[in-house]
Amino acid sequence: MLGVLGEDPFPVGFPRACRIEEKIRYWDERRGRIVEMSFSLVDDRSVETLGIGGGLLGLEAANGLKLRGMDVTVVHLGPWLLERQLDEVAGKMLQKSLEDKGLKFLLQKQTEALIQGESGRVAAIRFKDGMQIPADLVVMAAGIRPNYSLAEKSGTPFVSLAGAVVIIEPVKKQVFKTPHTDRMAAEKVFEDMKKRGITKVALLSETSGFGASGKKETEAVAGKYGITLVANETYGPKDTDMSPQLTKIKGTPGVQAVFVFGLGQGPAIVTKNYKQLGITLPLYQSHGVASDEFLKLAGPAAEGVRLPSPAQLIPAKLPANDPQKPVVTAYENAYKAAYKQDVSTFGGYAYDGLMLAVDAIKRANSTDKAKVRDALEATKGFVATSGTFNMSPTDHMGLDLSAFRMLEVKGGDWVIVQ
User: Fold this and answer.
1) What is the pTM of this model?
2) How far is it, in rounded angstroms, from Cα 407 to Cα 414?
3) pLDDT in tens, 44-60
């Protein structure tokens, strides 16, 4: 069973006119490792260095360059570091720890161009918001695509903990996953809207990776539920006022509800602006803000907001006969006892992946990788923190919309929508 495997580099793309031909290689595309750098430049302790990417590999590179005495600034598109692995609180704690070591950070910044100096080398970097800062060296570690070839070629089953639909579509023989997808979240919201007779919806999505993916999936499944997107607006991760977009939506003829797809503080700001503008249409958020932190940030303005959420957010509110109740309650109790903090869905995904593997090994009565793979694919009715898994040769995630609960904010707390 593979829990971690190799990945392919995902290089940052710039317009052709902005490319600088004399670049430092960071990745060997075959092996995924540093193979050459200009050490005449790297050994200069006065170098202003920019690391693009606040993921694990980007932070490792930045730390290594800092240890060489460089002045390093990490540029990251996301609202916090390691946003795919950590919640906002943990991401900010990590940032503070790294800042104490001398690293600097520019978050929610999208790179637009490398600026060439008189020497022919990079001299600065420009962002899409117009900001420009000097840079003698730019190291790009801005993303990776999971490399499933190791699992596929070796015939070893792999359980992924990432959320993208492309991990299991099209189906790959050895690859399975546990997290919910953006598509599922959109479908859960539209399912609830359909019950309420809502057919004309305004979409407001964040321009971050999470928001852009959610926008794409929302647009793709709207028709399936008889939903027409009569307005389609976006906002930036660093925006502090979404009133212009909401004013435009408010004036759109026929709109019956608003669906927001974003992470972090943005959706809470939208919710407050919504209240300030006196909009009374039903407001939906995505699973990206399914946390008590959203309630704190949005305050009273969140009253009436609906969103899809894993059962893990509300173990105490699940009915006694809910099959997930004992599982999520036991996980929450054990986690809090061990770590003295609230659980996160990320930990639940990892726990579910491990338990699925253990269950498959038990049913196969063997650790033979082919038998374990077949047992994983035959998983039925496995109750976990993320939902009840029912896998098949055509579905290597095995979760349906019942893995989400539709919640509504009432009196500053979560209530399950019946």
Assistant:
1) 0.67
2) 6
3) 444 565 666 777 778 87
Strand partners, 51: 74, 139
As a whole number of angstroms, the distance between CA 215 and CA 293 comes to 23
What is the DSSP code (8-state) at residue 319?
A: -
Strand partners, 308: 406
What is the DSSP pairing of strand 111-116 with strand 388-389? unpaired
DSSP 367-378: --HHHHHHHHHT
Which residue type, as a one-letter code, is found at position 107? Answer: L
* Cα 174 to Cα 152: distance, rounded to the nearest angstrom: 6
Query: Could you tell me if 270 and 261 are in contact, meaning their C-beta atoms sit under 8 angstroms apart?
Result: no
Q: Which two tokens stand for residue 344?
A: 């996160």
3-class secondary-structure state, position 23? coil
Alpha-carbon distances of 336 from 161, 292, 347, rounded to whole Å:
22, 16, 12
Q: Which has the closest alpha carbon to 10: 208, 139, 144, 146?
A: 144
Confidence of residue 257 (pLDDT cuts 50, 70, 90): very high
Around Cβ 110, how many Cβ atoms within 10 Å?
15
Contacts of residue 233, Cβ cutoff 8 Å, sequence gap at least 6: 202, 203, 204, 205, 245, 248, 249
